[in-house]
Design a protein that fits this description.
It contains four helices and no strands. The protein has helices at residues 15-37, 45-63, 80-114, 122-147. The two termini are 21 Å apart.
């Protein structure tokens, strides 16, 4: 299989820039969630809004892999090496995500009896839902962005 002739790949961003985007996405979401939970006055929104914007900018780089130049895309857009790299990245991502789901299920099973923390408020449940959704959407590209060597 060869690359479709009409497809133009963006040059691969340097590894350091790709890793900064991955870290910014996940740390930004964590910081935004923590800041959100301490909003008790209107001016505290001044902290959450910039964190949200920075997180969305980094997140958009992971959701749109062409911006990173990684081997992530439709089959017809990739050559054989890129297909193999993409497939291994997705396999590793969903193995990791599956492992996290099993760990959370085990935690949930034990936490109720042990008195450990569980998401009980609307804010905690919302943060957990969107966090899970965001990780599921970005993890394959994040793994590719983190591991693909500079060309």
């Amino acid at each position: 299989m060869t690359t479709h002739p009409s497809v133009r790949h963006a040059p691969l961003l340097p590894l350091a820039q790709r890793r900064i985007r991955v870290v910014a996405t996940y740390l930004g979401f964590l910081a935004m969630t923590l800041a959100w939970s301490f909003i008790d006055q209107p001016w505290h929104w001044l902290l959450v809004v910039p964190l949200g914007l920075l997180t969305l900018l980094a997140f958009s780089g992971l959701v749109q892999p062409r911006k990173l130049g990684t081997s992530d895309g439709a089959d017809q857009e990739l050559d054989e090496r890129q297909l193999q790299v993409r497939n291994v990245g997705y396999l590793n991502a969903y193995r990791g995500l599956g492992f996290l789901v099993v760990l959370f299920a085990l935690y949930y099973y034990i936490a109720g009896d042990a008195g450990w923390w569980l998401p009980t408020t609307e804010l905690e449940r919302t943060a957990f839902f969107w966090g899970t959704w965001g990780v599921a959407l970005t993890l394959p590209t994040a793994i590719l962005a983190w591991t693909e060597p500079d060309s």
